Amino acid sequence: MISVCSAVYRAHxxxxxxxxxxxxxxxxxxEDSQLCVALNGIDAATAGVPPTARVKPxxxxxxxxxxxxxxxxxxxxxxxxxxxxxxxxxxxxLEALARSLHEDATAGVVGPLGSTWDRTAWRHQEFVHPRPxxxxxxxxxxxxxxAVRRDTFDAVGGFDEAYAPASWEEVDFNLAVKxxxxxxxxxxxxxxxxxxxxxxxxPWRTIRHNGRRELLWSIHRRNRRRFLSKWGGR
Length: 234
Fold this sequence. Notes:
About 30% of the residues lie in helices and about 30% in strands. The protein is built from 7 helices and 15 strands.
């Protein structure tokens, strides 16, 4: 089974969690599918979560990493796919990600888009766009959609919730999986992403999380410091 885990904190037009749910059967192909949703300070009806999905609510927006951990805690699948609610997986796309994990014991994190990084300054360099059916090794698999085996997720302890509400949590997770001796792979799969929830925003924008409001620049700076203190010398 493929368990698709998503964290929702606001209602928005499609693509959204409802349209994601509609695509899952086709995207997972021959694999059974399951949608698990963390409700970050929003109720299921307002978010548009279908009644077939499993949900785990939080009274406030706890952030991306904690939300993904919440969704994973109610998932049954051997394969966990973490997906933003504004991504659009095409037919067979999530099945392709799962196949890569089934067939390659060295694969740790796989997704449709990867990137290379300058590991001295820890800055993004360029995206890795695999062609359909192609598999390319990369430094980091992008966070809007990626898959991991359940036992790998458990081995690294899930997502580091200190990065809440967002920023650097997926980079940290990729490195945690690499530290287990596994690889991060970009796999050619048809998954489109609107970059709505993930779009860049001005640094003076604020985010409400965990009962407080914080500037984006403050979040990014704090999380980058944590990342460098954790991984900079390794």
